[in-house]
Amino acid sequence: MEAKLKTLRQTCLKLSNICQDGNLQSAFSCMDTIWCLYDKIMNWSKETADDDARDRFVISKGQATLALYAVLIEKGMFAMSDFQQMGSFNSRFCIQTDITKFPEGGVENSAGSLGHGFPFAAGLAYAAKLKKNGSRVYVLTGDGEFCEGTMWETCLFASAKKLDNLCVIIDDNHSVGAMIDIGDMKAKLESFGFDVHMADGHDLEELENAFNGFEDNGRPKAVIASTVRGYGSGTLTENDIWFHKAPDDGELDMLCREVQEF
Amino acid sequence: MEHIIYTGDKPVKEIFEVFSETLEELFHEDSSVVYIDADLMASMRTKDLWEKYPKNVFNTGIQEANMVGVAGGMNLTGLKPYIHSFAPFAVRRCFDQIYVTVGYAHKSVRIIGSEPGICATDNGGTHMTFEDMALMRTIPEACVIDISDAGMFRQLLKKTKDRRGVTYFRTPRRGLPDIYAPETVFEIGKGKILREGHDAAVIASGIMVSSALQAAELLHEEGIEVSVIDPVTVKPLDYDLIEMFARKTKAIVTVENHSITGGLGSAVAETVSERYPVPVERIGVYDRFGQVGNEAFLREQYLLTTEEIVNRVKNLVKRKNEI
Q: Which segments within chain B are labelled E, that is strand?
């Protein structure tokens, strides 16, 4: 694993240790996707974070907010020292993002309730089309989130409105199968009129190729990123107690070392 | 007056324990009882039931609107669904499905919305419902229960098994102190008198019942004697009981973990203004959204403290005596 991806994961661990909350398994599964978008794909920088024509990243699976914060710290938007009270009511860095606390940009949506980010992102993409400002919108969802009916309403809308500037990334960490067989997502999305690319969600080159491989052809985009919950730490991957558990100081050291040696 | 056992200590059993136990009893009493969840079984600690009762327990995944529709369909075939999610997802998200598929269609579905209002704590604004009772009250024939005690929850889960229409329970998952003696009998539409005093009547529901009892004790030390009423069901409200205490005390204070618009305070004010108008003070959330915080912080933020009840009662009693 690239050194940068290890650093990002270690930042997630530190944030989780500070706030004693957050979903590390989920953050680690989509960590590489979010980094790839901000580092290689999106027209975004901290200097242009409030520019109307910027590309936008919407975190619909708000449970992975730790990963977004880690990327924004790495990109200089925020400093680690800003997060000392993360998760408390004194901090604007909530466990799941709160857009009202970031008027200068950096966070694009309020997360927490699943099935809301995708329709919201479609609205952003539609507005960009109306304004003809060239902005692209990337929205990260979970595989389980596609159980929500609103997701399919958005699929209809995005296709009907020809939102080829909208890209939905499904962080497919296989969390939904235990409850309901969601079937062939690629075929489903294609039947709705999406261009769909598959990628290994832990391979930056594959991710980059998937995002760059789309054409401006009037069809909305989807990347199905095959991922592993907790990827980068054997402990997080193997034990579901880490679905919603924060490390204490001792566990923090142990997990940081594990990530370093991954 | 009710026999109460309130000490403020931790309850003998938490709500999530009572929920699993009661469902299990219901499955044995009536094989047509089913429990459906939308991927919050881990939160409600019902995963064991899912494994143990594959014919009675179902998980739709994260799709509350569809869950309500599925429950309505199941009820049409004679099954008796109990469905659960966090209150915002159980009510706010799928209100249209509840209204149309269950209410309008006269289906029989029990909806358990957990962690209402400030009980959502660190999950913050998206999870914090100050409007769930207001929404559910407007559905014709719906029953709205703001749970204040584990024994109440157990008994009313059972008693509503065959109730037609929408039955809504809002309840925390844990930390609700025991209030009622084990032999207490609860009925839909019947409120409880927890304390009697002639200066004012404090009508409190859900988690605010224990705060009202604490406030009553503090007021007693200052020579002010208040009645404390738990309506049990905010809809149907025990109209006769409310009227009786309006007549007795001539001063009403309502207390709820909810917006003062559309919930308990509104229901009581509507009743009092029509039957026997006296001053009504509503304590609850005043036109605000939820936010992240622990319970103590949120109580301060939204004026849901014992001190607030004490002060508002004192002001009201003073005002009453000046009239």
A: 33-37, 57-59, 80-86, 108-114, 143-146, 165-171, 192-195, 200-204, 226-230, 233-235, 252-259, 280-285
